[in-house]
Specification:
The chain has 367 residues and is α+β, with helices and mostly antiparallel strands. The chain has 11 helices and 7 strands. The protein has 2 domains: 199 residues, no CATH class; 149 residues, Reverse transcriptase/Diguanylate cyclase domain (Alpha-Beta Plaits, 2-Layer Sandwich), CATH 3.30.70. Helix 2 runs antiparallel to helix 3 and helix 4 packs across helix 5.
Length: 367
């Protein structure tokens, strides 16, 4: 149990809540590759030194240091895009080892066969574009080493047939992994787009195209937290369409929907970019006004009320008008969001009681 917890903690080093799932996966794999890489290569370094194979020992030691550096990069939280740098170091260390295996031949000339692990690692850490670039450079370098006349850069002997088939098969494997990476990236982008679409739909009222309760609740929390932190003004307006049931009963629900939609568009058009309006209920709207005191909110509410009053709605050949009532409340540092909404709603209720088509401001609102 303790070992499992320690292993998870090690592999998740550098992972934070703000990172997307793909980045988290890259960090985990980078930690895993780094650990395996520097552990094995360091042991092999000691063994090579003991055998007196100093060239191999220094190559392995260099690879071990690079693998370990990838771990140090992930630990340092001040490094921007640490997972990408770490992944590049892992890829570089792996390619270095592959070059040495090609140069030395490995055990009975089988060393070059290990190069097939390079394409998946290169594409996993580098993506399609960077992975392709790295593989092209790797292939060019390997081709020079293998086909330079008189094998000047080789410490092993390979037949031309072996070298050419090794290169052709490596190219084939690289192309297959490139196609896989392209398909994976497209699938990931599609899933992200679908996820964003559903997330947006979950926050938007489909009829009015305004924020719904969930979307506005999130905005309220964000702006309320910000206003408290900066001691800035923030006001709410609760709005209701007057006698909306009469509209539905007289003209039909489809006309009622048109009224809701047209009023919503009018509200949205009149607001500043950093203000928000939501369809809070059937015919209710809630406004969130940032950097706005109660007097400014009242002025806006009167402007909106007058604007709606002058809209001509059409049913067949008939024209009709609707009005709205509004309640305004300026939030204080002591209010909760629920209390602010409740007080704005109470002002709306008073506007209804006093004859509708008017704006009522909370008596205790700050000016």
């Amino acid at each position: 149990m303790i070992f499992e917890q320690a292993a998870r903690a090690y592999l998740n080093t550098g992972v934070s809540r703000g990172k997307d799932p793909e980045t988290k996966q890259q960090i985990l794999v980078a930690n895993l590759f780094g650990f395996i890489g520097y552990s094995i290569t360091f042991v092999m370094t000691i063994a090579a030194f003991l055998r007196g194979d100093n060239v191999l020992a220094w190559v392995l030691l260099t690879a071990s240091i690079i693998f370990f550096s990838s771990r140090l990069i992930l630990i340092n939280q001040r490094v921007k895009n640490s997972h990408r740098i770490s992944g590049s170091l892992v890829t570089a260390a792996l390619m270095l080892l592959m070059f040495y295996l090609i140069y030395s031949g490995g055990v009975e000339g089988t060393g070059p066969l290990w190069i097939y692990v390079v394409p998946p690692v290169a594409f996993f850490f580098g993506g399609l574009r960077k992975g392709t670039r790295n593989l092209i450079l790797f292939i060019l370098a390997v081709s020079i080493v293998l086909f330079l006349p008189d094998d000047k850069l080789l410490n092993a002997s390979y037949s031309f047939e072996f070298k050419s088939r090794l290169l052709y098969s490596f190219l084939t494997v690289s192309l297959l992994f490139a196609f896989y990476e392209y398909s994976r990236r497209k699938s990931y982008q599609l899933s992200q787009e679908i996820s964003r679409k559903f997330e947006s739909q979950a926050r938007i009222d489909l009829l009015s195209n305004l924020l719904n309760r969930r979307g506005m609740s999130d905005r309220l929390y964000e702006e309320y937290t910000r206003s408290k932190r900066h001691h800035s003004n923030m006001s709410l307006i609760m709005c209701d369409i007057d006698h909306f049931k009469v509209v539905n009963d007289k003209y039909g629900h489809h006309i009622g929907d048109e009224v809701i939609t047209q009023i919503a568009a009018s509200f949205k058009q009149a607001l500043r970019q950093h203000d928000s309006v939501a369809r809070w209920g059937g015919e209710e709207y809630l406004f969130l006004l940032t950097e706005t005191n109660s007097h400014q909110a009242q002025q806006l509410a009167e402007k909106l009320r007058s604007r709606i009053e002058h809209i001509d709605f059409t049913y067949s050949t008939q024209r009709f008008k609707v009005t709205v009532s509004m309640g305004v409340y300026q939030m204080t540092q002591h209010d909760t969001i629920e209390q602010g909404i409740s007080k704005a709603d109470h002002c709306l209720y008073r506007a209804k009681q006093q004859g509708r088509n008017q704006v009522i401001v909370d008596d205790s609102a700050q000016t």
